[in-house]
Design brief:
Chain A is α/β, with parallel strands linked by helices and 299 residues long. In chain A, 33% of the residues lie in helices and 31% in strands. In chain B, α1 crosses α3 and α2 packs across α3. Classes of the chains: A alpha/beta (299), B mainly alpha (127).
Chain lengths: 299, 127
């Protein structure tokens, strides 16, 4: 279990994280989303023990991560900017990590080498961005850590490798109860992969919830009525946003779509239909709630 | 046997749940058949094991499947599922009739279309 309590991190007078509380259960695939500069990477670096917290604590399995080799042995962090030793090949890096991680699995590494189309003898700095990512992910999986922290890990991977990596991750979660924390802006991808989602904004957690709960907590309703109504007439449902064009209502409503439709039946709609929100819509909606939306950017 | 639609807005666990319920109703999954384990199904579909676990839990709550500790999940012999299926299908028919009405099709024509289809099914059953 990863547990952050009142976590704070400053860089000079810039506050990167403040009062952050977050719990991530074992065997979960946790998606970290948030606006640019919201503290996602800072949080991952704190979790992997790269940074020390200025205040509060970040603990894994009840132990402070910073300077604790025993617990760091169980964590593998793939940063957004990859680092390989100078002039090293994939094989050099594998040997390096094998010396660092007690759980390193050569057999598994060889299997991955057979699958990923990259040479283990060529120098890593000659590789493209996507190929370097692949190399980093191979190393990360072969280390057989209990916690895998991935910062924008799917960046630059082609669709085939993407889905292969997804399967490998799921496999590890199913077989060894691996815990994955993954930050990304690709909400579609997280939607298919994660079970929990945390939204960061300005250095603290806006919400952290189960994905299905999050998606089913809202629905998008489109309805038309023959009589004249305004949004204020629908007092039995909690309307988050309402747009009205003629007699057609487009609404985002809090609650279960079936209940909402049943409620609207009493107003005798010409038609009424409802859709669950996508994660992207939930994200945009939440951000609008705190005044971060593109409507104010568009001229 | 189980196909997921990645474009769908329905959560994956709902899709899984619906699909398994459908396979049970159509008899593809007979009573007392063992379902694949959570882990193996998750691996096969490439989805989060926790998602599969959730679908199984919901199915068990709705008594579509039952769990034998240490052995796995099995299809139950529950008539409730069939009842629900009937109700849901009728609901869909009601919705389709409403749709026809909205499209401006006269009541007589809708009635005829429905009864014609019913008659035709009857003939097919006899032959």
């Amino acid at each position: 279990m990863i547990e952050a309590r009142d976590l704070e991190k400053r860089f000079g007078d810039k506050i990167a994280l403040q009062g952050m509380n977050l719990t991530i259960q074992e065997g979960s695939i946790y998606g970290l989303v948030g606006t640019n500069g919201s503290g996602k990477s800072t949080f991952l670096r704190l979790t992997s023990g790269v940074y020390y917290p200025d205040q509060g604590s970040i603990q894994i399995e009840g132990r402070d991560v910073y300077e604790d080799c025993g617990i760091k042995d169980k964590i593998f962090f793939v940063p957004d900017e990859l680092y390989f030793l100078p002039h090293s090949t994939l094989e050099d890096m594998a040997r390096f990590y094998a010396s660092q991680y007690s759980g390193w699995d050569w057999e598994y590494y060889q299997k991955l080498c057979g699958f990923f189309p990259i040479s283990s003898k060529a120098r890593l700095n000659t590789f493209s961005k996507g190929m370097q990512r692949q190399a980093a992910i191979m190393l990360a999986l072969s280390a057989r850590s209990s916690y895998l922290l991935l910062d924008e890990a799917f960046d630059g991977l082609d669709p085939v490798i993407r889905s292969a990596v997804r399967r490998l991750l799921v496999d590890e979660v199913a077989q060894r109860n691996l815990t994955v924390v993954i930050s990304s802006h690709n909400l579609r991808e997280l939607e298919d992969l994660c079970d929990h989602i945390g939204l960061l904004h300005n250095g603290s957690v806006r919400f952290s919830r189960e994905l299905d709960e999050l998606k089913l907590g809202f629905c998008k309703v489109q309805a038309a009525f023959s009589a004249e109504y305004s949004a204020g007439d629908f007092t039995g449902i909690s309307i988050m946003r309402c747009e009205k064009r003629g007699s057609l209502f487009n609404m985002v409503v809090r609650g279960n779509s079936q209940q909402v439709l049943e409620y609207l039946q009493q107003f005798q709609p010409v038609f009424a239909e409802s859709l669950p929100l996508t994660l992207e819509e939930v994200f945009i909606h939440e951000m609008e709630g705190i005044g971060y939306d593109y409507n104010s950017i568009l001229l | 046997m189980i196909i997921l639609d990645n474009q769908s807005r329905l959560p994956i666990y709902e899709q899984l749940k619906n699909r398994i319920a459908e396979l049970v109703l159509t008899g593809v999954y007979p009573p007392d058949m063992q379902l694949p384990s959570v882990r193996s199904l998750a691996r096969e579909l490439g989805v989060n094991p926790n998602t599969v676990q959730k679908a199984y839990q919901e199915l068990e709550r709705e008594q579509v499947i039952y769990t034998v500790g240490g052995k796995g999940c099995f299809i139950s012999t529950n008539p409730l599922i069939r009842e629900r299926r009937c109700r849901e299908t009728l609901d869909r028919l009601t919705a389709a009739v409403r749709e026809c009405h909205r499209a401006g099709i006269p009541a007589e024509e809708i009635r005829r279309a429905v009864s014609d289809t019913v008659d035709r099914m009857g003939e097919e059953d006899e032959t």
